[in-house]
Amino acid sequence: MSAKNRKIVDVLNGKTISPPPLWLMRQAGRYLPEYRQTRAAAGSFLDLCYSPELATEVTLQPIRRYGFDAAILFSDILVIPDALERNVRFEEGHGPRLDPIDVDGILALKGDGVADHLKPVIEAVGRIRGALPEETALLGFCGAPWTVATYMIAGHGTPDQAPARLFAYREPRAFAHLLDVLAELSADYLVAQIDAGADAVQIFDSWAGVLGEREFADFAVRPVQKIIASVKARRPQAKVIAFAKGAGLLLKSYRQQTGADAIGLDWSVPLSFAADLQKDGPVQGNLDPMRVVAGGTALDEGIDAILQALGNGPLIFNLGHGITPQADPDNVTRLVARVRGAAR
Ligand code: CP3
Question: Are 332 and 26 in contact (CB under 8 A)?
Answer without folding.
Answer: no
